[in-house]
Design a protein that fits this description.
By secondary structure, the chain is of the alpha/beta class. The chain is built from 16 helices and 24 strands. The strands form five sheets. It has a nine-stranded mixed beta sheet, with helices on both faces. The relative contact order is 0.08.
């Protein structure tokens, strides 16, 4: 694509060089530059892209977008802008042909539930013969292929390329997890969302947003970007606030819930270890659902997905079948087969609210002890650590406090922060820094009918210690420990 076409719709402060060059790709990371690329120099949190301009040029960049005045040698086009980060989304969308305009775009935001809802929606839509792609935490799914990504919502270059690939694969719709970071950092600025879904909001990412109010205001942005409908969990206090804040918009609002009056709601709820049964109520009628994922939070996730199906006029039968076809989502209340008289559950819960939801779900059918193994991430919001400890101690019979991606912090110090909250409620706990040994302790000391929750890692198959990303697959670790116990 010609450079001037890539810059369409962007306010430029100054240009040096030709805009008639053919651009073969766009990157903000100098390490992935190839010949005839456009390099976008972004000022990041840890490094400044302007420091890597020479490296980008050596690798083949022939044009650069900058915020600072820079000097280069050779036939390099320099485009100076006020905000190069904001431009990355627009140039990426232009380069890949504004693919979101050719897809039904569904964005999901909130603290918990996003990943599961994407898979439930995908199942519903594909039951009604609508091909769907996913962009989210576990990775991007395009035409059945899972492509790993680093963030819940990738950088805009990756988003736009993924959407373009979906269009090329004749996919009809895309459902995307929309993180607060992606909204604040303008990664999704040029995605044409048809539907926005709000799950819930609780304490998370305060190391970045600083206050819960800032976090909420950032999430709110999605619901001003939609054209067809906004789907809101009315039982969440922040959901009620969103409904008020967007009431003046032309976009329709659909509410869902269990407690408050809503458009889509659940009745006759019956919880059990294998899942949950409930009646789905919609303006079009009712249908009984047998969901294969346990817990009240699963009912809310199913209601969000069903509401999306309702907005797209999918039949109640297809909504029911789509929901019931999902046997589970990796790392979301995932039961590991042990063939023992106790149960092991892996879940991604890593916030106070997430932990409370998953433990409350377990309480609904637990016959023996609830044993919770968990930790807190390093280089993240320290203030939530004691809150996590206190929350878990209120719901679990025995706690094992351990590591969870300590990054550059001392894991023992992180555990101390968590234990401050634990000891407000309970003394029935143990601290084991090594997470693998903590899992071994939990399994070797399990009693009949125990439910052991391994919280925090979920779908992740790695752990981050200092600057190293090390293999750590909890499912395999559990199976290996069980095998060792047999020998």
């Amino acid at each position: 694509m010609i450079l001037k076409e890539v810059l369409n719709g962007i306010e430029v402060e100054k240009i040096e060089g030709s805009l008639e060059k053919e651009i073969s790709g766009i990157a903000f990371d100098s390490r992935v530059i190839s010949n005839d690329y456009l390099f976008v120099a972004i000022k990041g949190f840890k490094s400044d892209g302007h420091d890597y301009i020479e490296e980008a040029i050596k690798k083949g960049a022939t044009a650069i977008i900058v915020e600072n005045d820079v000097e280069t040698e050779g036939d390099i086009t320099i485009i100076k802008l006020k905000d190069s980060r904001a431009s990355l989304s627009k140039v990426s969308a232009n380069f890949y042909g504004n693919p979101s305009k050719h897809l039904d775009m569904i964005g999901i935001t909130g603290t918990n539930g996003k990943t599961t809802i994407t898979y439930l929606i995908k199942s519903i839509f594909e039951k009604s013969n609508n091909k769907m792609g996913i962009i989210g935490t576990i990775g991007n799914i395009i035409d059945g292929e899972l492509i790993k990504t680093e963030n819940t919502t990738p950088e805009s270059t990756i988003i736009q390329k993924s959407l373009r690939d979906m269009v090329k694969a004749n996919i009809d719709s895309c459902v995307m997890e929309v993180s607060s970071h992606s909204l604040d950092l303008k990664r999704v600025e040029d995605c044409n969302f048809d539907v926005g879904i709000f799950t819930n909001l609780s304490r998370e990412h305060l190391d970045y947003h600083e206050t819960l109010e800032n976090y909420f205001e950032t999430k709110l942005k999605l619901f001003y970007m939609t054209e067809k409908a906004n789907i809101i969990n009315i039982d969440d206090s922040y959901g009620s606030e969103i409904v008020k804040r967007i009431s003046h918009l032309n976009t329709s609002t659909i509410t869902y819930g269990i407690v408050k009056k809503s458009d889509i709601f659940a009745t006759n709820i019956d919880y059990h270890l294998e899942g949950v049964n409930f009646t789905l109520n919609t303006p079009k009628g009712t249908v009984d659902i047998h969901l294969n994922i346990p817990g009240e939070f699963s009912v809310y996730n199913a209601l969000a997905a069903a509401s999306c199906g309702y907005v797209y006029d999918i039949s109640l039968e297809d909504i029911r079948d789509g929901l019931e076809m999902v046997k589970g989502v990796k790392g979301r209340f995932e039961i590991v087969p042990t063939n023992r008289d106790f149960t092991v559950i892996i879940d991604f819960a890593h916030t106070p609210d997430g932990l409370e939801k998953v433990l409350t779900a377990i309480e609904q059918f637990a016959e023996g002890r609830v044993v919770a193994l968990f930790g807190a991430g390093g280089n993240r919001d320290r203030t939530k650590r004691p809150v996590m400890g206190e929350t878990v101690a209120k719901h679990a019979d025995f706690l094992i406090v351990t590591s969870d991606n300590p990054r550059n912090e001392d894991p023992a110090k992180i555990i101390e922060d968590v234990v401050q909250g634990v000891e407000k409620v309970s003394s029935d706990y143990i601290s084991i820094v090594d997470r693998k040994e903590a899992i071994r302790y939990a399994i070797e000391n399990a009693k009949p009918k125990d439910i052991i929750l391994l919280a925090g890692k979920g779908h992740e198959t790695y752990t981050i210690i200092k600057d190293q990303v090390l293999p750590f697959d909890e499912r395999q670790i559990v199976l290996d420990i069980l095998k060792d116990m047999e020998n």
